Amino acid sequence: MEISLTTVPRVRKARKRSRMSRTNTSRAENCDEIRSGTTDVRRLPVEKYSLFSLVKHGRRHHETWQRAWRDPSPKQSYDTVIVGGGGHGLATAYYLAKVHGVQDVAVVEKGYLGGGNTGRNTTIVRSNYLRDEAAHLYDFALKMWPGLSQDLNFNVMFSPRGVLSLGHTLHDMREIERRVNANRLNGIDGRMLDTADVQKQVPLLNCSPDARYPVLGASWQPSGGVARHDAVAWGFARAADSHGVDLLQQTEVTGIRVRNGTVEGVETSRGFIAARKVACVAAGHSGVLAAMAGLRLPIESRPLQALVSEPLKPCLDTVVMSNAVHCYISQSDKGDLVIGAGADRYNGYGQRGSFSTIEHTLEAVCELFPSFSRVRMNRHWGGIVDICPDACPIIGPTPVEGLYFNCGWGTGGFKATPGSGYVFADTLANERPHPLAAPFTLERFASGALVDEHGAAGVAH
Amino acid sequence: MLLIPCPFCREDRSEEEFSCAGEAHIARPEKPAELSDHEWGDYLFMRTNPRGPHRELWVHTAGCRRYFNVLRDTVSYEVLVVYEVGQPPPDPPGGDES
Fold first, then answer.
1. Largest separation between any pair of C-alpha atoms in chain A
2. Which of B46, B70, B72 to mutate to test the interface with A (most CBs of A within 10 A)?
3. A223-279 pLDDT per residue, tens
4. pTM for the full predicted model
5. Domains annotated on chain B, with CATH
6. How far is CA A292 from CA A253, A296, A298, B72, B98, in A?
7. Complex ipTM, two decimals?
């Protein structure tokens, strides 16, 4: 200890002096590059985030950090234009550039990156879906989460703290048991818990037999958990940018140009952008984009609401979901209780949602966790989710040549972000559905091969 | 919270009394057996899902239990017109459905 105390500062000092002289020039250059704001802005090697870089910039009052991604002007044409700068769109761009070497890609976003459903969900990650097709897709995504922070060099704060789905009636329990058995056959780590196990796992939960919603048991997926949703968008954005993808924020798509059944590009608020392929990843606004290309989708857009409380001391170290009473709740690392509600029962694009929906959810929370009844809520919002008739996504081509959609994730797309981006990038690059995405094409609404996941989607709608 | 004027009860009632039965004016094809899979799938599943005025079928579940149509803006949530089933759909004010 003594040695390090005496030697380390001396080394640091020596380094600091030499660095200070360097910094002034490099910082100025950096600023110029950022200000120029054109497509040919910096192509500096992207600095790796590490403890070393944290210390390095910390010693310079954090004023010398490289910009996380460029702010380029749109080029006239790209190989692929991705519409929608949320987690799924950014992940698609990243895997297109990294895995498939397609770097001539732009992500067009009408607002800011991750400002839609990516920043509005309740951050739950799990894969305990009933049907084989869905279970394979979501489990593929789940297996990507543990390595994602390393891969992106961005801490997405994935925390596999387990996910509980409560059963309150005999019917619930039968459904849950069926789902757990199906999960185990698919190699997913589902397990049944009885009331005593649940109480042990979540001491604050009201498991008494005379509760309004008696807890008869639960399904338990220990490898599920939560991740920081903003960081997922930022991590994919930074990684995609470092592979040469242009991230165009404040650029709204106003039209999709189609000639002779083939897509030519997108009209945007910053002019026309030609593209060989257009990939729409716009969640609740997918129907609006489809209409621009003269298509209709089997999707209805509705607000799904969530809210967070004031920060509390740690009191809930897992995720508790209840399909029957429409609520799911976890505690963020900051201490806020993150509470998700059900989707509205009618279509809407207002990002607020129906008051009665949130009222029912809070009633349920107070019944399940009586000790939360006096917690004050801080913020409340809605995200526009794109709900399919079978609560499963649509991934793949459309009748318009070169136009692809990745949508319909509805109330549960966040958990699939890396997997969705991976299979969609593969679908785009090879112009055929990725094997995991093959059951989820638009074609299933003609063939009738729907993948009914309303039971496992987590939110009744 | 929507206040919906039920055309039969002739009162503005809370949305909680009603259920939304989805997009209105979707006519069941007269000869389903003659349709292709795509045409039948289009009837069953495809929706306009507009951002703006939207024609919907509602039912006054906890009231008169009768069905009626509503023209409602999905952005402002304003109930624009309420009309009975069988009446021609009104034109949305100030433009077409996108």
1. 77
2. B46
3. 999 999 999 999 999 999 999 999 999 999 999 999 999 999 999 999 999 999 999
4. 0.90
5. 3-84 (3.30.2270.10)
6. 10, 10, 15, 21, 9
7. 0.92
